[in-house]
């Protein structure tokens, strides 16, 4: 094969890289505009590919949205040995203050909040937050009102995420992460009593 033949040959697509670029572009668009305000052509243009690849790799805009929202519980959070303070600290460190790869610093739960006007997104948000994180946290509290205490912690963490990523508050995003973690730990420890 000559150099000219090589240069004119169809380019091989790196499926994994294309899929990753589409997910990154989708997360940015969904984070900024929500589901209804985001078009597949815009996502594809941001990723530098043809819009038909969204349907080839994901099937539909809804399936792409679902893939963009996929969350993984950070390593170690599922261990029952950790109490409420340790569990919450891991969430603060890895979810609220962390920078999830490919999410432009936003956790997929915050992406869901921007599209919470859609019933299916609200149902998924309820499932992940209430039946996932909060149920796990409630099981770590001893005594009565475990579910209430877990929801209070959940409200704190979601509020922190919204203040940092949506509101852009002046103090919390710039605060020393260790200081934030210590303050949150003190609040959760007070709820253990």
From TrEMBL:
DNA-binding region range list: 39-58
According to the entry, every stretch annotated as the HTH tetR-type domain falls at 16-76
Instruction: Please provide an example of a Pfam family that matches this protein in its UniProt record.
Output: TetR_C_16
Q: Which GO terms describe its molecular function?
A: DNA-binding transcription factor activity; transcription cis-regulatory region binding
Q: Which UniProt keywords apply?
A: DNA-binding, Transcription, Transcription regulation
Protein name as it appears in the record:
TetR family transcriptional regulator
Species this protein is from: Glycomyces artemisiae
